[in-house]
């Protein structure tokens, strides 16, 4: 956490900022003088942040047995992952930043590097669901029940990616738009980042969209140059670590290729900004839905031309962000382009990642894929 007045005049007093704003409690200062000098900047946002802080309990509410530990503000992601035996392990490696080499390592592809969940078969969805998805899943509890997972399974920490896509699809009006969607669905996924190292968990989309050929184009500046154009078919679920589990025989069966499977998920990676790559991409794939997870619309000016483009295309687009204030600022940017209110108002994502993030500027609860909104 840093002093909210940092960089706005005199240097900060040494040490962590300990003076919290008495109204909102969302910002902190190094000294009384910085708190006073910052009030002119802060006074407009203060009541709004106060409202947002009131929703902290709702945001920290998850059905898991590890909720207390995983939502503890100031708790470190490393020590939580360590406590469940998954710290710097396999596909979980990019969940904390103490192993920076993972982001630069030459990843041999979506299936290659991280072979399994590093979990026993009872703790992860490594095979077909026992029953096809029938009713609408309203949150993690529904999902765990449907997939017969115990509430101490940590898989939600990675499965928030595919479940958020599922939820965005449910919220958007795409389902009613075209009949074609009933067997083919194209999604353009903007700004992938660390999920580029976790794409094997997108295999779960197979269970979430049964009987549908789902194609996702992942476009963003964080796609490494050597992966530009990389394609993958995910016809198998990420296997568990039990040698004798059924999922091992599936894997052998399909290692020859995914052709002929009724529901497959195909992914294609593209490096660059959407508005720069869109002409190429549209030759291959015309989207029914655009999703932009953890977008940071207000933080990156490069979103503005992309939002202009989405407006012209007229395709429903759903964004997520880490905290409510980021979503609020993003909504302002989007409305300034569309000149109309959000089509999908800001709301809590029931499938946000159940592992708290540290926000460097605010005490607001902060989770990956926390808030959803759309144009
Ligand atoms: Zn200061
Ligand atoms: Zn305040
Ligand atoms: Zn760590
Ligand atoms: Zn396969
Ligand atoms: Zn298994």
Automatic annotation (TrEMBL):
The keyword Lipid metabolism does not apply. The keyword Membrane does not apply. Keywords: Metal-binding, Zinc, Zinc-finger. This is MYND-type domain-containing protein. Transmembrane segments: none annotated. Residues 1-46 form the MYND-type domain. InterPro entries: Mss51-like_C, Znf_MYND. PROSITE patterns: ZF_MYND_2 (PS50865). Pfam families: MSS51_C (PF20179), zf-MYND (PF01753). One of its GO terms (molecular function) is zinc ion binding.
